[in-house]
Amino acid sequence: MPQQASRMQLVRPSAIRELLALAADPDVISFGGGYPDPDLFPARELAAAYARALGEQAAVSLQYTHSEGLPRLREQLAERMRADGMECGPEHLFLVQGAQQAIDLVGKMWLEPGDVVLTEEPTFLGGLVGLNPYEPEYRAVRTDDHGMDPDHLEEVLRANPRAKLIYTIPDFHNPTGVTMTTERRRRVVELAREHDVVILEDAPYRELYFGAAPLPTLKSFDTDGRVFHVGSFSKTLAPGLRTAWVVADAELIERLALLKLASDTQNSTLNMAAISNYLEEQDYDAHLDRIRDHYRGKRDHTVAALRAELSDDIRYVTPQGGLFLWLEFPEDVDTDRFLREVLIPEYRVAFVPGSSFYSENPRYSRGRLGFPTLPVDRISQGIRRIAEGYNAFRSV
Ligand SMILES: Cc1ncc(COP(=O)(O)O)c(C=O)c1O
């Protein structure tokens, strides 16, 4: 066999797979998952939308369409993006197979091997997995309870002339659950302009807010087309639809659509037609209200259990949206070891060890708790087990 391309050195399975496989045992209460709750999938409404797509609309919805996506869905989404404060016509938006494909295509468009990608510290593992084949170097930007720290971003940009792309998750971050302030959003876009880098604004949790409507997008501060805003139906309708979208400058959308044409031609016309029907026939905003209520209830339950059970030396920020909460243990606690040796085998509970979420310099004292799919009684029970396991782990 010939040697595989050098990019393949960066393509490997993640180390947490093995640990999460241990947690797959049904009597382990796992806070490891990041999947949305299947009870919230609007299956009946989607069935009606697919029936119409396969009935009177079949000639169109079973046919090829544009690489940018089905025109009527682009129009509907552009209208929603305008309502969310972005300047957006259908020419500024195209459909992709999940936010994950947006990460891939934006990486393909901009990155030469050795270019520097700036990420939050920590960041979404799938973002790194998506960009790795383009052989970038990563620099982590310090993050606190209010998102990426722009002063540190400036320092890192100054120190790295090959910086090309900032990858950020400003709303209800995965894994930390925190939200970037409006002031920081404005500053991050200004810094990107000053240092001539592009921004990938990955926002799949944006519509899962529990309190006030989310803060303005980074895209809304973009004056020269350097922000790629990515939204997704994965957490709001269903991830199996593999439907997400990118908002960007019209010329760049055309270029990205050429890359999409090269890789998979277009999203499924049928899925796009069904989603378009769903948006036309159903009250999507009422559906969003329902799922926000559902996840807010789980968040409240999780936080109440943490308050009641958890040792005071473990810190966390109450997330204002999304599906995750980040536990910060004292620095000398190695959560990989804690999970492997104590929590999973003895206390039958799991979360994702924090070390998996760093683009450089992993920290071992952190952990991600996902609360979307667990019933509330399992949440309380699971947190009690974490607290008991922690007390036992600390006392040896
Ligand atoms: C921050 C972030 N970006 C992207 C994705 C991928 O989403 P999609 O299903 O739209 O590809 C996820 C999924 O968990 C995510 O958490």
UniProtKB/TrEMBL annotation:
Gene Ontology process terms (BP): alpha-amino acid metabolic process
Family annotation (InterPro entries): Aminotransferase_I/II_large (IPR004839), Class-I_PLP-dep_aminotransf (IPR050859), PyrdxlP-dep_Trfase (IPR015424), PyrdxlP-dep_Trfase_major (IPR015421), PyrdxlP-dep_Trfase_small (IPR015422)
Keywords on record: Aminotransferase, Pyridoxal phosphate, Transferase
Protein name: PLP-dependent aminotransferase family protein
Domain Aminotransferase class I/classII large residue range list: 47-386
Top-level taxon of the source organism: Bacteria
Reported cofactor(s): pyridoxal 5'-phosphate
Quaternary assembly: Homodimer.
Family: Belongs to the class-I pyridoxal-phosphate-dependent aminotransferase family.
Molecular function GO labels: pyridoxal phosphate binding; transaminase activity
A Pfam family it matches: Aminotran_1_2
Keyword Phosphoprotein: no
